[in-house]
Amino acid sequence: IAYNMVSRYGFSDKVGYVNLTDPSLAKNGEGAEIAFKEVQRFIQEAYNEAHSLLETHRSALIKLAKTLAKKETLERDEVIKTTGITPTKPRFKRLADIKLT
Fold first, then answer.
1. 78-96 in b/e burial notation, b at 16+ Cβ within 10 A?
2. What is the dihedral of CA 51, 46, 83, 85, to 10 degrees?
């Protein structure tokens, strides 16, 4: 996914809106190296964010795991009650919610 974000969909400011899946561009050593570094950066940032969230909410996750071990399934409201964590607005819009003009 990270590779496609960089090489196809222009999610990287360093690479820009260049389709690196084009064989003539993919063989360019400098372009490929920049894309590889951007993919590594995306993956590292995602890992750091996930790790931080897990550490921040460790006690809530332990409570949730213990509750799930007893009950197996929980409704949304039960998860919120068990963890004390209320959902926040997503940072990104769902693709279905984006209106094309």
1. eeeebbeeeeeeeeeeeee
2. 130
pTM of structure: 0.58
pLDDT digits (tens, 9 = 90+) for 17-50: 666 665 555 555 666 777 778 888 888 888 999 9
Task: Identify residue 34 by its one-letter amino acid code.
Answer: I
Is 67:60 a contact under the CB 8 Å cutoff?
no
Q: How confident is the model at residue 75 (pLDDT cuts 50, 70, 90)?
A: very high
For residues 20 and 57, what is the distance between their CA atoms, to the nearest angstrom?
Answer: 38
Output the CA torsion sign for 5, 97, 45, 64: negative
Q: Whole-angstrom distance between the N-terminal and C-terminal Cα of the chain?
A: 27
